């Protein structure tokens, strides 16, 4: 059974309809990329999965119908969303941000250990643990956002443009870490990226979205070879 | 010199009243980023509950804690039932609901309990060794209780996951939902806590000013001023601010400008301070992001 | 304006003019008060609704306007009609001056500052050293104007038409002001003050001006009320006047000219209804009405009317 | 048989009211009904006084159940004015112009009554027995249609001063007063009473606002001034605070407490009975919570009345005895007016009450009016609190002397 199954997903902001029936599935343990131009509906898709916009259609996650559930309940089922803008709690310290990630977990004891584990992944955060998160640099905040999501021990992570605003070197480092986590902890990831080349390198599967519909799908490797994809998104 | 000392100490006693209500205001502010104008009336109303319990023969401390529980429940219910439907309405619509709550509670209290003043018992011994002519044992005890409440709140927000979640929910509700925090309940919890703090304030204030439906009416403005002076997002600041307002008011009234104009003058000074230091004494300076 | 709107306003005007000949003097007097409140609420709405600066103390300007009228009539023997522009000028200046420091205050801080103003005003009015002019705690009793030029109107009717004329002028002025560049600038400052600045709107000037104009409106209303009630006293202007004004603009509709009228009807008549329902706890009933209105019409009566019209069209 | 009875009662009526043989009515009166208007603060900052209006309403319910006044039922129409003069004007007009009441009765508050003073006199509608202690209501030459009822504040203050000048001519006086018309009226009374000595004798004069939480700071100021006489011109809550605070800081002046706040149960008990020993005040109404009236038949009667007609009302609130007593006064005036229920006659009858005794008034206090005397109660008696109850002393004094 697929971890995530999306059928005929529609979404709208007020009167403006953004998604017009998206279909896709995701297997457990995989990394899937959603590609598309600005305004195609990638971010909205992620938001729709988390119940942050009004939707129609069916969304099944790990056997639960989550199409009508509230954001916090979806999060508690094991979907961790790293939103665009990173969603940092700016006035709380780095450590408190991490602790919030573990807020809904039942295994409170393991939370402390996990915080240390995150510091293992991102040593920069450890140096900043008592600082207000608002004072962190963009890259550090991105790391914090990913760590906060990981603190939730999710089955599925939704990553909205994790590379945005980061120096290329940092992006590479971040993606390596994501890969490592995916390998080691079998966390599935749904990735939205402008940087299609890097996304396809990381991902197993990919879907191409245009104006609120899936127009193409396949393995990352296959899409990378596809001519039209190359022309439109990879730029060579 | 004795006159000044006496006025300052009397000011601290009154300031304790402002401080305790200011603390409740800060509580709600932390949870909802709104100032609840009905806070004083809620405190007054719960104090009547305590009064009824004590009058029915219940020991003081039993009544004290039952009232706190009652106040907490009342706060939660008010949020869930009355405030919830206007959660997404413009801020001023919520303010109108606060005003409505204020007049309803005031009026209903007058209706049930009449307007004659009632004396409310103090838990502190009348002739404690600390009694001086400057401050009664109750006034000192009340200040002590306010500080204990402050300490408890500080510990709650700083060291418990729930306290952390409440702070998070107030700051960034969207992100809070994403980590599984039930933001709606955090708001209700904030209301409950504020009402509970208010109940303590009411029970500490009532022995000093006597219990009547308008008991908190005049105090709200001072508490509001104290909260802002100390820093609206800082419980400790609110308490310091409350004391500062109490002392300032007395000193102005007795030595500087006379009683008729002490309130306008105190407010002018406070606003002057806020012009120079907008976040108050202890408030966090927020980074505004465009 | 569309022809339909002009027609509607014409009909309303005819009704307004016919009213005092149809209803009793007492009702005429009540509707005079409604217009007074409408003008006051329009003032507050310019500041709070359009410009986003909250004021919990507009009763202070209402009081200032009322005392201007009363003191001028009582001490200087000024004719009642001349006190209106005088009150307008005084309140414009007072509002503008108060608006200057208020520039640095936002949200809660402005709420506190205005709240403080509202609470402090009655204390200033009864301050001993001003009592020579203000009458101190006793207030000032003034005479009721008679209809001039031998018009066959009784004093209530005359007062009604006088108030109607002033109110119309004030509403027309506001309408002119708010639909144009200034109105857009005020709204821009409310919604996106940094962006507005970037677009070349001088926030400081506009915000203090909004304060001044708003105070002027409320002051004119205060002067009208003094003439209508024939009496001013510190007790007439306690903090609840300010609070009720806020309730009025929210229930009527923020950032809406017609909302001022709806709000005025609410604050004039709903307390009377509440009193009829329960002597035991009239305020409780009034509070329930407030909550009811906010629930049913979160954008005020004006907003609900707008929605209704839009729905009928589509 | 029936006709005979009617004639008989006509004869009786003729005998009792020779001048009012014919029925004469102004708006608000008829064969079956007398409509009376009233405004009271049922909401707002002064809502504590609203209970007076409710007591009066209950009183007339009782009167109606017992057959009304001269066979007519009383319809008591009362509106909330929130203690806001503009609202009082609106409501007074509603009562006079729309509800067509015969007259207004017990409209409450000095500012509220000032606001309608001119209107009522212009309309020639009685503004009867207003509920305020200002002096200006006793002015029949200029305001023929307005009449007070209770002893006025200035006169009360003067009776304290007279006592003080006799007992302690070298006193240093400290005054605490509410910063409004009521407080300032008392202060004026004190100063007028002291005359030229006012400047030298008054060493401190401090005020408070109704919205102040406490008057502790003011009491400290008064003590620091070195005053040895304390005029306590405060409403119940502040009176209790002041009595307690003065005691707690060890200030022991000769303490005059105004009549507004003499209730044993709702002022002195909260303040502490031991702390209230030695207070001097005046009274004209029996305090239902004072031990000496515990078994007084009038107070018993009042309690029965409260329980039956106003059960939610407080049995320890002096205002409710006040309301009962003032309604009794009006009851008498209306009885006297007989069948001539014109506004002119109501005023005339109100101004010719001779030595009326009402059993809830203190013994010796009577209601007395005349064409030139629009102050129904002018006699008061000084009293001192002994820790258990008020002890009246000295003679009943005509406070206007």
Unreliable residue stretches of chain B: 286-290
Could you give the order of strands across the largest sheet of chain D?
3-2-4-5
- Calculate Rg of chain D over CA atoms: 22 Å
| End-to-end separation of chain D | 56 Å
Order of helices and strands of chain D: HEEHEHEHEHEHHEHEHEHEHHEHEEE
Please mark out the parts of chain D with pLDDT under 50 across 5 or more consecutive residues, or reply none: 1-16
Major protein interface: B-D, 41 and 40 residues
Q: What is the mean predicted local confidence, pLDDT of chain D?
A: 87
State the distance separating the first and last CA atoms of chain B: 52 Å
Number of helices of chain D: 13
Residue share in helix of chain B? over 70%
List how many beta strands of chain D DSSP finds. Answer: 14
Largest sheet, strands/sense/barrel of chain B: none
Helix vs. strand class of chain B: mainly alpha
Structure description:
The complex is a heterotetramer of chains A (236), B (290), C (314) and D (401). In chain A, 40% of the residues lie in helices and 27% in strands. With 236 residues, chain A is an alpha/beta fold. In chain A, strands 6-7-8-3-9-10 form a six-stranded mixed beta sheet, sandwiched between helices. In chain A, helix 3 (94-101) runs parallel beside helix 6. In chain B, helix 1 (2-32) runs antiparallel to helix 10 (235-256), helix 3 crosses helix 8 and helix 5 (137-159) packs across helix 6 (161-171). Chain B is globular and about 60 Å long. Chain C is built from 14 helices and two strands. Chain C has a two-stranded antiparallel sheet. The longest helix of chain C has 27 residues, at 203-229. Chains B and D meet through helix 1, helix 4, helix 8, helix 9 and helix 10 of B and strand 7, helix 8, helix 9 and helix 10 of D.
How are the SSEs ordered, and which strands pair?
The complex is a heterotetramer of chains A (236), B (290), C (314) and D (401).
Chain B: H1 2-32, H2 39-55, H3 60-83, H4 91-113, H5 137-159, H6 161-171, H7 173-178, H8 183-209, H9 217-230, H10 235-256, H11 262-276
Helix pairs in contact in B: 1-5, 1-6, 1-8, 1-9, 1-10, 2-3, 2-4, 2-8, 3-8, 5-6, 5-8, 6-8, 9-10, 10-11
Chain C: H1 3-22, H2 25-50, H3 59-75, H4 80-102, H5 107-125, H6 131-134, E1 140-141, H7 155-179, H8 181-191, H9 193-198, H10 203-229, E2 231-232, H11 239-252, H12 257-277, H13 282-296, H14 300-313
Antiparallel strand pairs in C: 1-2
Chain D: H1 2-16, E1 24-25, E2 33-40, H2 50-65, E3 73-80, H3 85-98, E4 103-105, H4 110-123, E5 127-128, H5 153-167, E6 173-178, H6 181-194, H7 198-201, E7 202-208, H8 216-224, E8 229-233, H9 236-248, E9 254-257, H10 264-271, E10 280-283, H11 297-309, H12 318-337, E11 340-341, H13 343-350, E12 379-385, E13 390-392, E14 397-398
Parallel strand pairs in D: 1-11, 2-3, 2-4, 4-5, 6-7, 6-8, 8-9
Antiparallel strand pairs in D: 10-12, 12-13, 12-14
Helix pairs in contact in D: 2-12, 3-4, 5-6, 8-9, 9-10, 12-13
